[in-house]
Amino acid sequence: RRLYFDTHALVCLLEENGFTTQQSEVIVSALVKITNTNLDMIYKDMVTKMQQEIALQQVMSHIGGVKKDMIILEKSEFSALRSENEKIKLELQQIKKQVMDEITKVRADNKLNLNLEKSRVKELHAQQDRALTQTDRKIDTEVADLKTMLESHKLDNIKYLAGSVFTCLTVALGFYRLWI
Length: 180
Hints:
Structural class: mainly alpha
Family: Belongs to the CCDC90 family.
Subcellular location: Mitochondrion membrane
Helix content: over 70%
InterPro entries: CCDC90-like (IPR024461)
Keywords: Coiled coil, Membrane, Mitochondrion, Transmembrane, Transmembrane helix
Protein name: MCUR1 regulator
Largest sheet: none
Strand content: under 5%
């Protein structure tokens, strides 16, 4: 063991300050004992370089084991995640197929409904056209009947007028003859 202070210089310093040589040596020896006791306690808590290297090797081997375990765990977790991912992909594809089927079904239903509505509208237009045509025919028939009736009445009026005129002429000629 080495002491990191000069014991002789300390003895000399103590003698200069009024201590005797024997007192100075006793004080320095007590300091040396105290220092050695403290160093012994410090050395008990300390490890040697060899012990430190052994502990470091043990820690490194434990770290290597943990790394291997982590790699194995990571691979197993990764494969579990991969299989779970594949399951989710399959479920997603099934759901996508179902959605596409539903969309196709809804489109077909909508087309069918649209075509039915178109045919109903066409039928309604056809009915309206037939009703309109029938109404036009009735109106034309009624107009023709009215024209015929008007012509008939006109002819009757002309007959009555002509009869009235001839009757008046006959009466006027009768009076004329009577007066002349």
